[in-house]
Amino acid sequence: xxxxxxxxxxxxxxxxxxxxxxxxxxxxxxxxxxxxxxxxxxxxxxxxxxxxxxxxxxxxxxxxxxxxxxxxxxxxxxxxxxxxxxxxxxxxxxxxxxxxxxxxxxxxxxxxxxxxxxxxxxxxxxxxxxxxxxxxxxxxxxxxxxxxxxxxxxxxxxxxxxxxxxxxxxxxxxxxxxxxxxxxxxxxxxxxxxxxxxxxxxxxxxxxxxxxxxxxxxxxxxxxxxxxxxxxxxxxxxxxxxxxxxxxxxxxxxxxxxxxxxxxxxxxxxxxxxxxxxxxxxxxxxxxxxxxxxxxxxxxxxxxxxxxxxxxxxxxxxxxxxxxxxxxxxxxxx
Length: 334
Prior knowledge:
The chain is α+β, with helices and mostly antiparallel strands. Helix content is 39%, strand content 22%. The chain has ten helices and eleven strands. The protein has helices at 56-66, 70-73, 90-98, 102-115, 119-126, 129-140, 147-156, 229-248, 284-299, 309-333; strands spanning 6-11, 15-22, 35-42, 48-55, 171-178, 191-197, 201-207, 215-219, 225-227, 264-273, 304-307. The strands form three sheets. Strands 5-6-7-10-11 form a five-stranded mixed sheet. The protein has a four-stranded antiparallel sheet with strand order 1-2-3-4. Strand 1 and strand 2 (15-22) form a beta hairpin. Helix 4 crosses helix 10 (309-333) and helix 6 runs antiparallel to helix 10. It is elongated and about 90 Å long. The two termini are 49 Å apart.
């Protein structure tokens, strides 16, 4: 029995598209000697329109790509799902899963658990309760922890940075990043607490403690309240870091591990983590004025996100609560 190595792929009102694999006969052949030819001709007259010659490897790549779509490889498919294209980047995949609705997330995780994920992988998604408990404990005893303690905590829990910050997943590139050139005597070095990345652009994070004062004791005019020098000085500090990094980033920079920083730097976004909203004191009217002053101040800072420790804690709780909703369903599927 012989095979016809030409195949009609499809046609429209004017043309027919064919595929032919040439070089096949009764004798065994090396795959490299074969060719795949796509050609089109007029459906009415047979007049050729174009020919495209491909290697079998090209054909294999096309087949591999098309087989990733269920509506192509499954003839019973009547509709498609929602497709999201991501690069081969674990952090991007985790970010998409975190923002999926619960039903979609349960289905995705059940599939992965049954085929690929190990227990350690599951813990990466769901096992953040212990870190959350540590965060809560540290905030209930803020005087017991210094800025360096918070640096270490966020370094081991970078997922906390990734939710709610314009829905971009952030990873730490370098802790205590030297983002300026020094004087000849080694002085005037500018150091940011963290240099982070959203996989495309670099960002700067500056940490102060949760006990940093946000206001003075003086009320301003027009229902405003004077911000503390600790807060305004921190903003000035991160602006200086931003300006220095804009210059330093134009040359090659490497992390402590010797990895080249590929991310671009354009008008760097900055994150200042400072103080706590729960520390605002006064009667109800004074608290309202202070909150209004604080919110207007941070909304009008260009490319600087001011986040408060208890505010960031609430975002962390939300991540953990979202995981708890699906945890029972996920475990029952194992």
